[in-house]
Amino acid sequence: MSTIGDQTTGPGAGPRATADIELRHLSRTFGDIRAVDDVSFTVSAGTLTGFVGGNGAGKTTTMRMVMGVLSPTGGEVLWDGRPITQLDRRTFGYMPEERGLYPKQAVLDQLVYLGRLRGLGATAARASVTSHLERLGLADRAKDHVEKLSLGNQQRVQIVAALMGRPRALVLDEPFSGLDPAAVDSMADLLREHTSRGVPVLFSSHQLDLVERLCERLVVLARGHVVASGTPEDLRSHSVARHRLVLSGDAGWVRDVAGIHAVDVDGPTALLEVVEHGAERRLLEEALRRGEVHEFSPQRPSLAQIYREVTA
Amino acid sequence: MTTVTRPPVDDTVSDALSLDEGVGRPWAIVALREIVVRLTNRAFIVSTLITLVFIAGFGAFSVWQGSRTTTYTVAVAGAEGRQLVERAATSAHRADDKVTVEATVVSGAPAARALVDGGTADAWLHQTGSGWTLTSADDADLALRTAVETALRDTALERNAAAAGTTVQALELGTTLTTTRFDGQIGNSGLVKGATFAFALLFFMAAMMFGQQIAASVVEEKQSRLVEILATAIPLRQLLAGKILGNSVIALGQVVLFAAVGLVAVSFTDASTLLPTLSTAVVWFVLFFAVGFFALACLYAVAGALASRTEDLQSTTAPMTMIIMAVYVASFGLSGRALEVASFVPIASVVSMPGRLLAGDAAWWEPVLALLIMAAFSAVTVVVGERIYRRSLLQNRGRVSWKQALTARD
């Protein structure tokens, strides 16, 4: 099928790129503003790492420093255990925060151009672009000028620009914004294929449900600092356990139970945090004494909830 | 439920982006894209064709103008009038061999008027009092008037000379004025002026058009943040080199095309005898243009990098626009010592040195020296420009001033 060297049978096969991207005490100031302050974390090989944080938290600045588009005022980025070079980054797939392509050039032509700049041969670039366009349902638009595509489709073209070839690492700034559910699924599949190849993937997102669904690891940034990082389970275990209580009568009395913090009470329903171990027993005994208990269930904290806690 | 078989991603690429391919010459890939994009741009093709048609049209017009003959028919009543017209024909032919004057005999005023009104005759020459009158439907053409006037004057002079017992030659003795030039050249200053103007116009058009295009293509990449992708793929120096090279090739190609068509057009005109001199000057012009455009292209790329949006280009390209305007204006405003100085000043020399060569007042080493000076200037510009370009290109917070860019650190 191809004339190029060793063949591999799929994205999961072939040599594994098993290096980590390591950020060490990375800082960047703009004038008096410390946009990124002493940020350290590792994007491990083969791991999908979600990068979350509010607007202005410093995600984009961090990613731009990883890609060498912006130079850090302090700290360093390591690749494979040594300081990263421009040549290393050349093999990375990067999707900047703001999207843009040559509006008046055909989709296929400019993707092949970008691929060639990253060192792909013309044939290899064309093959990679074509297969990606097919995957993202854009094969029939290959000859169209980018400006003729809808924003969502332009976004898909941008994805191809970042993922084509076989990048050794992926740094993607808000790759899911503006995508419809079908494209989100294709994109998620593609990212998983890359991680299964051993590629470290760092992506930022505002869509916490998506991050929760996809990510093996999570880094939460607030005001330039890493406020939490780890697997979603790690983050949950640090979170205070919550319970939902539904009674037959009014639940207002739970506010007075020692060791229990009532987060919210609405008629017979209450959302509670068990502050003191064993307090739930006292609570239930009191509830049964007063009437019936319809429900008493532990609440798995959503990522959004954890996010609010750690960034508060 | 059906199983969807997807084509696997990149089963054609053996390993992660192979680094041994094309690493050494990304500038060539960039240059090639710039050339292809320009050559497939409809506006570029159309404007080039229009200019070519304009130049060829000028040649064709000159040829037509040169081969056109004009015949004036003058209505006269008597033999004396007829003789005058014959004499006028001789003098008109001497002034311009494409002009002839004929006489047609009429019976009187009404017949003459009928002929003139009908367009058969151009004028009616008739005697009034002691002199003659030339009556036409509108103001008579200058060539006809001059011819008839000369004939009348010569006839009168002959008659009056005979009456005074002398000859016309004796009367006209010492009235001839001959013009010469100190440099011994035969007067072709019209051609020098015309060609210098053509050089200035070519330079002006090409520099402005391609310069603006380079700036626009740089800011397009900057504004769309495409530059971030490009910057992570290749060194920015290579991106700049490719841009300058690609656009210079196109600009030079266009200038050579225009100059060649222009020379062919000139070969059809009366000025064709000066073609060798003109060709030499054109070759020098193309050489100077090639070297000078390199510096301008780099400056325009920097101007593009300083802007953050297309709207900023007007202010960031202002210094270059002023330089180009100054060169354009200086090309017809300067003379003597000032022109000599200008012919060594980089950028200005693109127009003024070929002009001096054409006028024949530059020694052989002068264009060589001027070209070397410009090459040095271009080299310095590219080195300095590359630094500013790199520093400003990734700044996405508003417009960067020339001063900020020059003093900023890496």
Automatic annotation (TrEMBL), chain A:
Pfam families, A to Z: ABC_tran, DrrA1-3_C
A single MF term (Gene Ontology): ATP binding
Position of the signal peptide: none
Record keywords: ATP-binding, Nucleotide-binding, Transport
Keyword RNA-binding tagged: no
The ABC transporter domain, residue ranges: 21-248
PROSITE patterns found in the cross-reference section: ABC_TRANSPORTER_1, ABC_TRANSPORTER_2
Family: Belongs to the ABC transporter superfamily.
The name this protein goes by in its record: ABC transporter ATP-binding protein
Organism: Terrabacter aerolatus
From TrEMBL, chain B:
Chain ranges of the ABC-2 type transporter transmembrane domain: 42-384
Pfam families per UniProt: ABC2_membrane_3
Localization, UniProt: Membrane
Cellular component GO terms, alphabetical: membrane
UniProtKB keywords: Membrane, Transmembrane, Transmembrane helix
GO molecular function: ABC-type transporter activity
Residue ranges crossing the lipid bilayer per the database entry: 43-64, 197-219, 244-269, 281-302, 323-348, 368-389
UniProt main location, coarse: membrane
Bilayer topology: Multi-pass membrane protein
Name assigned to this protein: ABC transporter permease
